[in-house]
Amino acid sequence: MTAPHKNKTLASLLAFALGAVGAHRFYLGGAKDRWGWLHAASAPASLLIALTAPQANWFYMILPLIVSALAGFLTALVLGLTPDERWDATRNHASGRRSDSQWPLALLLVATLMAGAVVLIATIARLFDLLHTGGAYG
Hints:
This protein has 138 residues and is an all-alpha fold. It has helices at 8-18, 23-29, 34-40, 42-52, 58-81, 84-91, 103-133. The chain contains 7 helices and no strands.
């Protein structure tokens, strides 16, 4: 029996779209992936902050999700830029199939880089605003 083939484009898409909750980690490693559970814990952590500190700025409440999403964007880039031969050697050695990445993966990587840069710059700007001016600019 052959192992299931892990699609590099799907893994990158999951890291891009649902990286904040670890969907890509569960796709690649299953339910035993500890890093996936750490990603998934970002949602309850945000809820816990909102419940324990309701007077806190909304940005602090969603900060665990933002950090997890940034890690997901970075992971999407790393997964997508892995050469097909190395991907197959590490993820699909027993599947009997070979990966052949196409243009959709390249477009996904461009979108990931754009979205990740925007989220990272906005996060840094908001953190500096909150820490240095007390949120005077928004």
